[in-house]
Design brief:
Radius of gyration: 17 Å
Oligomer: single chain
Shape: globular
Distance between the termini: 12 Å
Number of helices: 9
Order of helices and strands: EHEHEHEEHEHEHEHHHEE
């Protein structure tokens, strides 16, 4: 029988929610930051370093020769970067074995802001069940699920739904209509991925990649070292899956 979490769950929102987060904290950014990071690790990236500013990314790029710059502002690739925030546009061979420097408008900002968290995970649908299993194994007193929303300033349906799905997994509750809710977002919040004029920045394939749930057996645990934040790919033992 699957374990159920008996601690306290806080569902927080936006940058102000990240600032208030305590306990084991999951910073959620579905479209597209942490979905992308999970795919980057699946493509063989050596490590991913989330950073708050474009300037910091360029500074780290000098310290990590051969590193790959990935990031966006308002969805658009940062000038001088190798890639924007699009999982479908990244060439796997270009990131395999490389250090990735990643900055976004919402997700990575939440990591920087969550100074009171006891432990940090980067969350999306692709790793949702693994996140729940990791939390159940750790069994912390408190869990904070932070839906970062759009630009970290206004809520969006995808991050809210992801937090609710993780909460259901923790409590052993069913969400039988998850796939229908995910696909319905193309008409509620994700329209930009289907507009012909947006395909260079928000390709439709990104939508379908980001709504895939529970496809990876690892979590993205955020740690800190002398260079700043680093996202570690932590594979869960098979007995916890």
């Amino acid at each position: 029988m699957r374990k159920k979490y008996t601690g306290q769950i806080h569902h927080l929102h936006l940058l102000e929610g990240a600032e208030k987060a305590v306990g084991l904290t999951v910073i959620i950014d579905v479209f597209r930051a942490f979905s992308l990071e999970s795919y980057l690790y699946a493509m063989g990236a050596e490590e991913i370093r989330p950073v708050g500013s474009i300037e910091q990314a360029f500074s780290l790029h000098e310290q990590f020769p051969g590193s790959v710059l990935i990031g966006e502002r308002k969805g658009v690739k940062c000038e001088g970067f190798d890639y924007g925030n699009s999982p479908s546009q990244v060439i796997p061979e270009a990131v395999a074995g490389k250090v990735i420097l990643h900055t976004t408008s919402a997700g990575t900002q939440g990591i920087v802001a969550a100074e009171n968290a006891a432990e940090l995970l980067a969350g999306s649908f692709t790793t949702a069940r693994a996140i729940a299993d990791y939390i159940l194994e750790k069994d912390p007193v408190e869990v904070s699920l932070v839906s970062m929303g759009t630009m970290g300033t206004r809520t969006n349906p995808e991050d809210e739904l992801c937090a609710e799905y993780i909460r259901c997994l923790l409590l052993g509750e069913e969400m039988p209509d998850l796939d229908e809710k995910l696909q319905a977002m193309r008409y509620n919040g994700a329209e930009k991925f289907f507009a012909p004029e947006n395909q260079s920045v928000f390709p439709e394939q990104d939508f379908w990649m980001c709504i895939k749930h529970d496809i990876f057996d690892f979590v993205l645990r955020v740690e800190k070292d002398p260079f700043g934040f680093v996202t570690k790919r932590v594979v869960l033992p098979k007995e916890t899956l």
